[in-house]
Input
Amino acid sequence: MTVKISVLKERDEGGERRVALIPQVVEKLAPLGIAFSMETGAGLASSYPDNAYTGVSVSPDRNALLADADIVLAVQPPSLDTVRAMKPGSVLVSFVYGRNNPDLVKALRDGKITGFAMELVPRISRAQAMDALSSQATLAGYYAVLMGAVHMPKILPMMTTAVGSLRAAQVLVMGLGVAGLQALATAKRLGAVTEGYDVRPETREEAQSLGAKFVDTGVDATGQGGYARELTDDEKHKVRTILSEHIARSDLIVTTAAVPGKRAPRLIDAEQISAMKPGAVIIDLGAEGGGNCEGTVAGQTVRVGPATIVGPVNVASMLAEQASELYAKNIMHLLQQLITKEHGLAPDFTDEVIAGTALTHDGYITNDGVRAAIDPT
Amino acid sequence: MTVKISVLKERDEGGERRVALIPQVVEKLAPLGIAFSMETGAGLASSYPDNAYTGVSVSPDRNALLADADIVLAVQPPSLDTVRAMKPGSVLVSFVYGRNNPDLVKALRDGKITGFAMELVPRISRAQAMDALSSQATLAGYYAVLMGAVHMPKILPMMTTAVGSLRAAQVLVMGLGVAGLQALATAKRLGAVTEGYDVRPETREEAQSLGAKFVDTGVDATGQGGYARELTDDEKHKVRTILSEHIARSDLIVTTAAVPGKRAPRLIDAEQISAMKPGAVIIDLGAEGGGNCEGTVAGQTVRVGPATIVGPVNVASMLAEQASELYAKNIMHLLQQLITKEHGLAPDFTDEVIAGTALTHDGYITNDGVRAAIDPT
Output
């Protein structure tokens, strides 16, 4: 039962540099009887030239690859044309972000494509190896601190010189999910004095285990599914007062707060920014979702009063080689659930992970939340 | 005996963000009876707003400040117009780079300005606190690694994730002066596997003390004044063969080789670059002197074969706040030699440090090397 898998070259317009397959994964999946094809140059931007992929056929004809594939792998949500070139009953594995891309979801449904959306992988321990949001967020958290460091007018570590010592920088990370914790770890590595803040008090120990002080505001905002709930106005005021002081003394702030399907929560307002130190830098990883800071512009670096606010988009793509490595391995673990040597491609929709990751199947939007949002009938 | 010191705002065209005076130095020099003036906004780009300078008068009238000053402080070599507006017998303290700026040296001579060139501070232990080349190079070495990290498609540290471990990056630093050693230290902090190379074998222990492996080529090129001598062709070939292997396996290379008054030595050629890993990055701190790598373009980031070569200029200025702090303190230590409370401004030209730092005095080019280079008569 040979399963044909085609891997797409990401479209250039989004600046996406990652690829959904790396040579190592080809090797690992070989025993399952898979025939891999990929678009010419698909891995080039992530440092995997075509000739690095042993046993993968390479073709410039995207439509032929799509028409022939049992499974199509991509990073970014594909275009409608891409979906329409796929054969009925075939499988797409990529990020889809269905709520933001209703036309894409409908095209998958109407084309009878089984769409597995990598952002829907359930956050349970058995699915950790498939959790692409986490793997990419880890890299984004690391990179955020380095972006901060190159925008700051001072260094992160304490440094002793012939002419006196330079003080270590103060780094505050707001939002202690996967990205935030990695940001704390990276800032600490570089020698900064670190503080972490999150509305979920159970993150205290994680921050402290990374050598950071935890900013205690006395407000508990533990929510569902590992994300924070929204705060009441009173809670917001209480939090704001305490945070203002920490914001004012920071040299670098990394914000990472996201609520799935909603606008990124506002963590820092214009008044707080105006009270920051001259030269202070904010890296707003919430930029794509509307920004955690007042004044953030997605994709740009702006000067607001004394501070510089960087609003990067698609940060993981900046570390394309290893972001692709982790993403391709996340997909590999999913494929190992979907494919067996005996039966070929045979997804078991009674499996919690497979059912949870599926967005569309056999002419139907299987994810309740996305279906309710874009097709309420 | 009040000494009047004027501090210039650097000209915008060079992208210079540093300033030659910080508030802390004003305070420290107060007992010597100095009246400080500075150009409006001189410290702004390095995060020192005018109102941070207590006891310093601020004026937008550059020519008035120049005409009134006993001592003028700057970072970059001043323009001819600036020198011509200074009064005869007054003192300039700044970088001058006389060999590259012969007209400037002649203007200082003809204007009877005593020019102290910060790049001429003798490299002896008593003058360490005045050594601006070293203080700025330390910061450049740190920053080079961070620039490398944001250009690389992978992370520096080893990282364990739910989907497997990412390998630590291989970092090679070529040229182990102040900048190179700081680059090694910073790459190590970030978790990279580090290697150091220098033609001077005595740098081995310094590299090793920073956790780096020393690349041994069997060639000793110890030269005068702490700099390396030029190698013979045979030596170059021997070194090249061994280095090629280390270059080919590096993810990030920082080159820092400089020979004063000469073109930067070529450390990496086009053939070696073509054998590098896809996505490898070179930060060429020799870019301003013509580059340590074939293909380096000063002030630009270029893609050459598999590699990205970054040729930054004026790197210390990117860390303007602390670069200014160190530079201003370097100058402070020099001023403490030039000025006494009893006699005011009274340089003792029999002092090795003062004589060594002086470039022009009383209508004469006092530095032998510079005089020979630009005024052989």
Remarks:
- Residues 20 and 328 of chain A are 5 Å apart (CA to CA).
- Chain A has a mean pLDDT of 94.
